[in-house]
Amino acid sequence: MKVYFAPLEGITGYIFRNAFNDIYGHIDKYFAPFISPAEKCPVTPREMKDLTPDNNRGINLVPQILTSRSEYFIEAAKVLDSIGYKEVNLNLGCPSGTVCAKGKGAGFLTEKDELKQFLDDIYSYSESDGIKISVKTRLGYHEPEEFYDLVEIFNCFPVSELIVHPRIRGDFYKGEPRREYFAYALEHVRCPLVYNGNISTKKDHDELCGYFGTDLDPVMIGRGLIADPSLADKLNGTCRETDMVKFRALHDTVYHEYKKVMSPDVNVLYKMKELWTYWSILFEDNSRDIKRILKAKKCTDYEDAVYGKLLIG
Ligand SMILES: Cc1cc2nc3c(=O)[nH]c(=O)nc-3n(C[C@H](O)[C@H](O)[C@H](O)COP(=O)(O)O)c2cc1C
To answer: Whose C-alpha lies nearest to ligand 1, atom 31?
Structure first.
């Protein structure tokens, strides 16, 4: 089955993607965290560093664009096309307050007429340019019932893949996904459909397939893949237990690569601690060591905590 790595802003940048891809692999598509094009600046130098093919060798990467202005989307897509990308993704799911207040991400879902016009513009461009546009969406902003109209809108356009995170904006990433609306999508969406949300184990995936009465393939996974980097292999039946040798290699590569490009220590540790909030479930019996990691202020303290007992040095 196909597994897509969900975009996680601040986590799945090029350093993490490269480490993951070299050590685990078996990801069919990586979606990059969103870029936010602005007037006369379709892609910032920082965003370009993350997306340049030189920093993403051997990785099937789909850049993601967050905007409600079709001219900004098209300018960004043209730049991405010029460096070799054949697919870009539209973010209609971001629940952040500042993003939604500007009518972007999930905040764009309330403006049905503007959204239709926006999609009309960007798909006219994509047809002339030959670049594919996929969409990652929530069910709605206020109510999940908004999804019925949204499906009707998406069905009017050549969406290359529709990735549905079955929550509304106010759900953020919490609670159970609203599966019944994804069941509706399976019945009514005309383009290829991808499920995203709360798959952390093979059992979760099997249960979802049972619920929907169909094999969910592809699926997009974010937090579950960070927390258990062997998850894609488990879903594909090529591994049963989390491979801790590979996990150590992933940790060490990400840590050393961050140290090369970041300073002082607190910045590196901020990144690593964010990862450990996910990884801690792999070390349930070692809560004291996890606490030491999360409290570390210097790399030496961090290394003592990580290599002392958790990842035997
Ligand atoms: C820290 C964080 C950052 C995220 N950044 C993005 C992003 O840049 N673009 C996007 O479409 N979704 C983003 N998401 C949402 C994820 O891609 C995904 O839809 C969500 O985590 C649900 O899937 P999961 O349960 O498999 O993690 C983010 C989620 C988190 C927790």
So the answer is: 8
